[in-house]
Design brief:
Layout (H helix, E strand, L loop, with lengths): L2 E11 L4 E10 L3 E5 L6 H8 L7 E6 L2 E2 H10 L1 E4 L11 H9 L7 H10 L13 H12 L6 E5 L7 H16 L4 E5 L3 H7 L2 E6 L2 E7 H7 L1 E5 L6 H4 L2 E7 L2 E6 L2 H7 L4 E3 L3 H8 L5
Parallel strand pairs: 3-8, 3-9, 6-7, 7-8
Antiparallel strand pairs: 1-2, 1-4, 4-5, 9-10, 11-13, 11-14, 12-13
Bound molecules: adenosine-5'-triphosphate.
Pfam families: ABC_tran
Keywords: ATP-binding, Nucleotide-binding, Transport
Organism: Jingyaoa shaoxingensis
């Protein structure tokens, strides 16, 4: 499988935050979720990858092409959905589309109309009168209408009602069916990832914590519940994070066989993606 995007040694600094040696790749044919808590660096990473803000150092290649030298060709091949959209507020949806579509070599008016109808958007409506959800749907319609080979989206499901979120997840799955494509999107709504992600990349405090196939991740971690009396300095080391109440402890571990052999009478459950994310940012131990 070819990599559709490779990022190596990406560094960027703001006054109080930096991306630190961000390195990962996205294989073709995968829907990849980009997760992390508020302020972890998801938006900064996406904006830096797209050349919307300067990097300090690092190499970014889309479709095997260096972003520094081929930005125009690469952008033609990517569908981008960012918060806000960067639209001219006074224009109608149709007028704004006219400007955006002229920048792409393979714009499909037919696809655009189909998505506008599907999302019940009126081409005559002004951008500044769109609700947050409608704005997101409009940005999606634009991103999906120029035969992009990769979709990069920052929190595309936020602000969408469950019905439209479901529609979007279905559209993304259909989009992938043609082959040779990729989707990379950040989200807080980890239940969306349970449904459609093939791969997950987690960032915390500007560093990549893991990049792993979703099924492998869900097989690797376990939630353990037991009596707090079983927690010793040594057994605590078997957990990534532990929370304790009067009724006992709940911990997340990657070493379930060791936990079973050292701690009797435990309850073991499969984790959710959210459990894995929270476990990896630590917690009282
Ligand atoms: N233009 C900027 N100037 C200075 N600091 C910034 C700028 N943009 C972002 N930051 C800081 O970088 C850090 C990471 O922000 P970023 O928006 O990338 O996080 P995020 O993971 O997308 O968070 P969220 O889930 O809340 O959207 C934050 O501490 C933020 O304050």
């Amino acid at each position: 499988m070819n990599d559709i995007l490779t990022v190596s040694g990406l560094n960027k600094s703001y006054v109080d935050f930096s991306l630190k040696d961000v390195t990962f790749s996205l294989p073709e044919g995968c829907i990849t979720g980009f997760i992390g808590v508020n302020g972890a660096g998801k938006t900064t990473t996406l904006r830096t990858l797209l050349g919307l803000t300067n990097k300090l150092s690092g190499k970014i290649q889309f479709f095997g092409l260096d972003m520094d030298k081929n930005e125009r060709e690469i952008k033609d091949r990517i569908g981008i959905v960012l918060d806000g959209g960067g639209f001219y507020e006074e224009l109608s949806l149709s007028e704004m589309k006219g400007i955006i579509s002229s920048a792409y070599t393979s714009w499909s008016e037919q696809d655009f109309k189909r998505y506008m109808d599907m999302f019940s958007l009126d081409p005559k409506q002004k951008i500044n009168s769109l609700s947050k959800g409608m704005r997101m749907k409009y940005a999606l319609a634009l991103a999906l209408s120029h035969n992009a080979e990769l979709l990069i989206m920052d929190e595309p499901t936020s602000g969408l009602d469950p019905l439209v979120r479901g529609q979007l997840l279905k559209i993304l799955t259909e989009y992938m069916e043609n082959g040779g494509k990729g989707v990379f999107f950040s989200t807080h709504i980890t239940s969306d990832l349970d449904k459609i992600a093939d791969m997950l990349i987690m960032i915390d405090n500007g560093r990549i914590v893991f990049r792993e196939e979703k099924d492998t991740l869900l097989d690797t971690y376990r939630i353990v519940k037991g009596d707090s009396g079983a927690l010793t300095p040594d057994t605590r080391k078997l957990f990534l994070s532990i929370s304790e109440t009067d009724f006992g402890f709940t911990g997340i571990t990657k070493q379930i066989s060791e936990v079973r052999s050292y701690i009797p009478n435990i309850m073991v459950e499969r984790p959710t993606i959210e459990d894995i994310m929270l476990g990896n940012i630590g917690g009282e131990k």
